[in-house]
Write a structure and sequence with these properties.
By secondary structure, this protein is mainly alpha-helical. It is built from 8 helices and 2 strands.
Length: 223
């Protein structure tokens, strides 16, 4: 009789004892469930005799039963899985220290009141003038650049002209104006038989019955 009473007592104590695992973080438990579910997905990889649809259905039931079994056998801060809140605020030691440090720093903060800086009328006038003159200055700069490009082209053309060899006509004009020299004589050998420009002009005037007036020299008294 005594043994029967002790057995009933032990069975009643077992019924009152909660064997569920006590946890403090629902989020951490869910992370562990997800990690083991990844491992369970490979359980049926070696079952080649099962069809793909059958394997997929069995795997889904296995994962669902595993997650439900874990959730039923844990207590989150004394509450069941469904009673425990989804969003938990995990206040660890580091976050608490950070909050305390921020509060201490806030005690030493110096409040700075912004001051309105007065505007300088003279400076504002100068800025307005510069803004107004900016378009015209840009146009002037454009014209200057175009003028420089034109001068550059003209200078290139002048250099080409200076580098050209003199023609026969230009050599003859040079000889008539500046007189004969050795260089012009050497370069103008084929054109020696031509008449000078002055002689051609006199002959043309005579042909047209035009007699040029001779220069009159006025002598001063006593010469």
């Amino acid at each position: 009789m005594e043994e029967a009473g002790q057995a009933d007592k032990i069975s009643s104590e077992d019924q009152n004892t909660d064997f569920r695992v006590q946890v403090k973080s629902k989020k951490q438990v869910q992370e562990q469930i997800d990690r083991y579910k990844e491992l369970l997905k490979t359980v049926l990889d070696g079952q080649t005799e099962l069809a793909a649809d059958t394997k997929k259905e069995l795997l889904g039931e296995l994962l669902a039963n595993f997650e439900a079994a874990v959730q039923e056998n844990v207590l989150v801060n004394g509450q069941t899985w469904n009673e425990a809140p989804e969003d938990e605020e995990e206040d660890d030691l580091e976050s608490q220290l950070d909050d305390a440090e921020r509060k201490l720093m806030g005690l030493y903060e110096n409040t700075v009141h912004p001051q309105e800086v007065p505007k300088d009328p003279e400076q504002e006038t100068i800025m307005n003038m510069l803004s107004a003159e900016a378009p015209s200055l840009a146009k002037q700069a454009t014209h200057v650049i175009k003028s420089i490009q034109t001068l550059q082209k003209q200078a290139e053309g002048l250099c080409q002209i200076l580098n050209m060899k003199p023609s026969a006509a230009s050599l003859e004009i040079h000889r008539e104006v500046f007189g004969d020299d050795e260089q012009s004589n050497d370069m103008n050998q084929p054109f020696r038989h031509r008449q000078p420009i002055k002689r051609l002009a006199e002959e043309a005037s005579s042909a047209n019955s035009y007699i040029p007036q001779e220069k009159k020299y006025h002598c001063e008294a006593g010469e």
